[in-house]
Design a protein that fits this description.
54 residues, mainly alpha, 1 helix, rod-shaped
């Protein structure tokens, strides 16, 4: 591999890692927003469901 090829490969790798890291972080942010919403929504459903048997 020439120096130029190594440099290009390194840049591509860095770019890929940056994209993956960004996507992972944004996915986590989205999940951390969605999960509490579903938990709250489902706990309300669960309370209603339990109320039926009280």
């Amino acid at each position: 591999m020439s120096l130029l090829e190594r440099l290009i490969a390194l840049l591509l790798k860095e770019l890929l890692l940056t994209i993956l890291k960004y996507r992972f972080e944004s996915s986590l942010a989205i999940l951390s927003g969605i999960i509490p919403f579903f938990v709250l929504k489902n706990s309300a459903v669960l309370v209603d469901f339990l109320a039926l048997f009280m």
